[in-house]
Each structure stands twice: as C-alpha cells, then as structure tokens.
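Can you give me the bound-state structure? Components:
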Amino acid sequence: MNYIFFVVKAALEDFRRNKTRTFLTSLGILIGVFAVVMLTALQLGLKKYINDQFAALGKSTLFVVPGKILSGGSFNATSALASIKFDNRDLLSLKRLKEIKEISPIFSKQTTAKSEKKSEDSTILFASEAFFDINGFKIQKGRFFDKTDIDKKAKVVVLGPKIAEKLFGTIEAAIDQKVAANSVNFTVIGITESKGGGGFGGPDYDSYMFAPYTAGFIFNPAKNYSRFTIKFDESYSVFQVKEAIKKELLKRYDEDSFSIIEPGDILSAVNSIFGVLNIVLVAIASISLLVGGIGIMNIMFVTVSDKTKEIGVRRAIGARKKDILVQFIIESTILSIFGGFLGLFLSFIGTLIVQKFFPAYIDTSSVILALGVSSAIGIIFGVLPAKKAADLEPVEAIRYE
Amino acid sequence: MIKFRNVWKIYKLDGGIEYQALKGVNLEIKEGEFVSITGPSGSGKSTLMHLIGLLDKPTKGEIFINGKKVTYLKDDQLSTLRNEFVGFVFQQFNLIPKLNVLENILLPTIYARKKLKYDPKKKALDLLKKFGLGGKERSYPNKISGGQQQRVAILRALIMEPKLILADEPTGNLDSKTGVEIMNLLKALNEKEGITVVLVTHEADIAAYGKRMIRIKDGKITKS
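Here's the bound-state model for the whole set.
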C-alpha cells in the first residue's frame, strides 16, 4: 500500500510539472472516450424515444400492410413496392373475425391545408373512429369523429395541436372553423392532445389532420386502403390473431402480398439497425483509442529514457525489476484514466447542451465502459515501455548521464 | 565481510575487441573498516565499486559477502541484498527530484522485503534532526543546498541500517568546506556506529580519511 502511494504520488508530481505534455498525451484518449460516450448518449436517447413511441401503441395492436415488408427482423424495401391494395371487402371480412375488437382502415394524402387566413403543408389521414382509441389519442378540445360521422361521410376533421395553432393562431379559435384540403371544405370538430416529438422515429401526428375515411373517398375514387390498424381481443394470443387474419386474407391473396406486423417487429427491426450503428460507433472509438494508446506508449518510452538515471538509483537502493515494471505501468494507467475522465467530463457537458433539442442521455454502463477501456489502454500500452525500464541493467542505468 | 577472489571484468567492445577492466583482483574488506579505493580514471575503480555494490556481475572469479557467494545470485536476490546490506552515496547525490526529503529517505523502505523492526518514518525524522536537517522534511531536493542534499542521500543510505556504506566520490560536487563536513560525517558513522565504509575517490586528501588505502591501476591492485 505504501509502495502504491509512493508511485502514485511521484507520477502525479511528474504530471504536475509537465502539464502540457500530460494533457497532449491524454488527448487521444480524451477524444476517443468523448466520441464513444457522446455518440452512445445520442443513440440511447433516440432508441429510448422510439421505444416510448411504440409503448404508447399498446400490446394488443397489429398492422396489416400490403407487401412483404418485414422478413427476418429487417426491412425488405423491394417487395414493399410491388404490392396489392386493400379494399372494403377486406375491411368487412376482417371486421367479422371474433379475435378483432377494433379495426381502422387507413389512407392518407399530402395536402395544403387552408384556413381563411393561412395555408400550411400537412398530411390528412383518413381513418375510422377506432383509429383514435387504437393509437392512444386523447382529445384536448371538441370531440373525435364517431360512427355516425363515418356513416354520413361527414366532412369533419380533427386537427393535431401544431397544425391547429399554425392555421388558426390558437387551439380555441380552431373549433367549428373550416379547413380546405384540395378545395374540399372540412369542419374542425376537435383538437387532439400533443403526441410529442416528431422529426425522427415516427410521424409527427401533431401536424396531422384526421378525417372519416368515408369522406376521404373524394380523393380516393378506387376506395383503396393503404393499411389496417387493428386492436385485438386480449383473450387471444398474438399468434392466434395473426393466424386468423392470415387465414382470412389468404382467401384472396397469396402469402407474399401482405404482412401482419406487431409493433414489436418494427421495434426489433429498428433495434437491429441500432445494433449496426453500435458496431460502427465501437469501430470509430476503437481507432481513436488505439491512436491514443500509441501516443501514451510513445511518451512512456520518452519518459523511460528521461528517467534512466532514476531507474538506476531505485535499482541500487533495492528496487526489483517487478517494482520498476509496476511503477511505469501505474504511470501510464494514470495518464490514460486522466484522459478518460476528461473525455467523460466533456461528454457530460456535451450531453447537457444536446439535451435541449435531442433526447440524449448517458447511462452508467457507458461511464463504466469508458473508464474501464481507458485503464485497459493505459495498462496494455504501458507494458512495453515499462518492460524496457525494468530490463535496464542497474549498472548501465546508474552510469547514464 | 567482503571478499574478492581472482575477479575479472572483461567488456566486449565493438568489433570483437575485449577490454579488461579488472584483471584478477583479490581483496578483502573486514567489518568496521574504513577503506579508500583510489586510482586514476580508467583504472577500474568504478568497475570495482559497482561489483562491491552488487550492481554488476564479474566475468570471472568469485565474490563473497559475509562468507556467502553472491556471484551467481538471481536479480531479485541481488536487489534484496542491495536493499538491506549496502547504502549508496553518489557524487551527484541522485535524490529523486519529485519526492520530498522525507520521502527520499524513506524510498529504500518501500522496497524492503523484510519486516522492519522500527517505524521508518519516525526513524527518518529522528535522523533528520540528528543530522541538522530538522524542519527540512517537506522540502524538495532542488530547494536545499548541495551539502544538505548529500546529507539527505547519506540518510537514505542509513535508513535500512546497512552494514556497508559505499560512497562514490561523495565530495566531488561539493565545495571543500562542505566536503570536509561530509567526510567527517562518514568518519563518525564508521567510528561511532561501526558501519563499514568503502570510499571511492581520486582525490588524495579525501582518500586520506580512510584507515586503509587500496590503490588500483590498469585493473590491478597495486597497494592494499
């Protein structure tokens, strides 16, 4: 213990006397640790955001989409293009299934929404009254459209809070006003509560408009649906429900022309993309940490030369080879951990700044990893110089001027 | 205490030339002696000192310490012996600059393999007081005078209570007045504490402090 104290104290005193050299040497490690902690924080934040969005959908939700989108957990873009189109026959046959509690057909249209004063680019999403419940929407003002509106093909619209404010200034002012989408007038009957976010990881529902699908046929004379959103009866398993839907749809289509997707499937596909991202991050970080390690090794070789005489003196007063070896490895490890701490400190500051516009966060495992890796680098890249120091002949070292 | 029997030290130079630094040296130093080793530069006295201090190994011949043959000991065993048996005093003092006076004196104790019978810190502070360096324990070597540095180096050599002090030109970097002080100190250690002192010097007046003189020339002892 006494020995370690002496070595650490001597090393720290050395660093204090060579501040610039110490800082420059640990810079490589600093950058490496900063890169890996910062990028991991961004990645974790994004992943958490996406996971939260999916969590809002609930367990008993399924999507039915045309084409074979997901195969083996990853997106398959080519087969998503060439695909069938669902229509009212599919809706009616699925509605009859006892496993399905609620179902909403969905199609949407990019449009320019116009109020009396303003116009905004937006998306109008046509769905049934079940859509709001399935996706966990809450009303802030007014009401959702209902079964009667669907049956009457009512030209009513529910607005997301963002688009409502953009078109009418305030949410209160929007109710009962008219919004024109491609010259078709819709009456605003309700404003949803904010779903938050937007921009990445999912649609920005706050800027959407929602209208009865029956009213949307004006824009969609073929009456095709681009997908179904389903809430199923939880007394059945996901597997049972998927099999029932599949059996029903196979009556009309072949197996490769549609997909039944659980939110979990999408999530695992997203997470597999993050897995790849993670490997890239680790590769980048490894390179900068390697460069940092070589920098430390280089300086340690210089230090060993500088201290040849000191090594000789220590050997003369009784230090064994092992003592010299440990001394220099501790020195390089302190140097490396110092860089690690600086990098960590910078990434804490960086994360605090980024958090203002991105949900980044640092978890304990990346802190432990950063410090673990930097101490490992100190030890690994310190071994060669320390070995050189330990193997110096005492008589050669003490004669060295 | 120290015995050399037909000790040779031959260096291999570039181009296969051999240089014989010591040519069959026989010598004996008894416990409690104060021996000066003198000789011109290149005579082999440094080589002799490194062999006595167990910093180097002979090419041929045998070295005994307290009747035990040390010629073929392993590196770790030699380190332990240097730690416990010898105290070195160098011309350049060779204190570790980033350790303070007290830590420099304690340095040999951190490498000690045996359990010390005393509290090293207390002993170091006592020694500092006794040698007129009280209050300097927290100073760094570059903040004290050459004479004080050499005294700290002597205390570092004494902390392990060695049987032998090996002083290599201990006054070489000091003015003559301070040099005399250091020599009187070594003399007192020899006379009062009974520590064996081996002094290597090329200065005749310094060598005169020794009770016995060993003169070496061209790798051979000419007078002892």
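A couple of observations. The first strand of chain B starts at residue 2 and ends at 12. The interface with chain A takes residues 50, 53, 55-56, 75-76, 79-80, 82-84, 88, 90, 94, 96, 98-99, 103, 106-112, 156, 160 of chain B (CB under 8 Å).
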